[in-house]
Amino acid sequence: MILLAEVECLIYDAQSLKQKRSVVKSIITRIQNDYNIAISEINYQDLWQRTQFGLVTISSDKVQSERVIHQALRLIDSFPEIERTTTNLEWV
Asked: Which residues form a coiled coil (predicted)?
């Protein structure tokens, strides 16, 4: 089972692309270290207060895939400098 999550976020405190990249990099690094999923910034690379992440997990169990993605989403929500606005989940 392959589960894809597309997550749009707003970064309120970023005043430059450099500050945005710092926030994005810390989130990506933390998720890659804590969970066995792939994550990347997939959109809005040139906007300094907006980003979109793509998260993908593969598992033989549908429940396990959902659990891992939801844990990663909760981790994104735990960062005070970012707000998750929309999340689309898709089974591939």
From this structure: none
Please list, residue by residue across 9-43, b when 16 or more beta carbons sit within 10 angstroms of its beta carbon and e when fewer do.
Answer: bebeebeeeeebeebbeebeebbeeebebebebee
Would you say 70 and 8 are in contact if contact means Cβ atoms under 8 Å apart?
no
Q: pLDDT tens digits, residue range 17-76?
A: 999 999 999 999 999 999 989 999 999 999 999 999 999 999 999 999 999 999 999 999
Report residue 37 as tokens: 């999923």
Side-chain-side CA neighbours of 26 within 13 Å: the count stands at: 13
- Compute the distance between CA of residue 24 and CA of residue 40 in angstroms, rounded to an integer: 9
Here the tokens at position 77 are 């929500």
